[in-house]
């Protein structure tokens, strides 16, 4: 279960007698519970003492005093409602929908003409844009919007915490569709495994995540390398299972080429798991000096760094401690909510 900061208990009158509509365009409402950033913000908004409605489709939208919407790509619908009723809207730019780099699969450049137009209108006309990292704030500014506020994702550090468990796996998590597998360089991870097994032949690797349209190609690569006994694909997992796997992890690997923030990286850090990632986009902003960086296209280098940490328990412990402290100080739910309270209060009571 996720815990909500007690911060708002002292602000009971801030948003009383107001209505807020939280919106995200998704097909499966279960994601409101499973996806941390939705769950955190909904739980926060419930604590504001405003009357909260949650909409995941156009037909669920209703007149509200404030609209709070995730993703610039899907926020055109609540934007139209907000403008029609002359109410403010806050939009969270949380990912690749605002990234113009043409090399990025599923980024802004991959959208249709209408999709691009929707993103442009949302960025131009929203009353406030929140970016979950400085990296994404800089991307939004390329659209000509300079008044972007950076409010980092909030990690529930009371839930994602270290535990006294046997550390026996190397962990990664990603939705196994082509775009995410390409972006997070899961094949680099798999290709690094044989080099690790030369020194640690019994080492287990676990890759979690829904088995999308790239799953078959990954399993074929595993078979070709002859490492079926060392890599497990778990498929979709619950938050409880994810926590268990983090707490069992010696290392977390994510040699990504792009992250708008890197929530899984921060969750690993919160569980005091050393991270090996890449010095790209928002990763360096989140990881800081608490992990190691590799070339995302060099499995030998990734294996070398993995071996270095596997053989150096003291170094792992140092990185673990620094990682946990960094999340507590910078990326906790409490830190996110501290910034959201005055922002929402300002729109409702201006």
Mean pLDDT across every amino acid position = 93
Largest sheet: 6 strands, parallel
Which residue ranges are poorly predicted, with pLDDT under 50 across at least 5 consecutive positions?
A: 1-10
Oligomeric form of this entry? single chain
Radius of gyration (CA) equals: 21 Å
Record the strand order, biggest sheet: 2-1-3-4-5-6
What report would you give on this structure?
By secondary structure, the chain is an alpha/beta fold. It folds into two domains: 6-154 and 332-348, Rossmann fold; 169-330, Glycogen Phosphorylase B (Rossmann fold), CATH 3.40.50.2000. Helix content is 41%, strand content 15%. The protein is built from 14 helices and twelve strands. The protein has a six-stranded parallel beta sheet, sandwiched between helices. A six-stranded parallel beta sheet has the order 9-8-7-10-11-12, with helices on both faces. Strand 5, helix 5 and strand 6 form a beta-alpha-beta unit. Helix 7 (186-197) crosses helix 12 (299-310). Mean pLDDT is 93; it is low at 1-10.
Summarize the structure.
The protein is of the alpha/beta class and 350 residues long.
Descriptive terms for the model:
350 residues; Rossmann fold; 2 domains; globular; six-stranded parallel β-sheet; alpha/beta; disordered N terminus; 14 helices; single chain
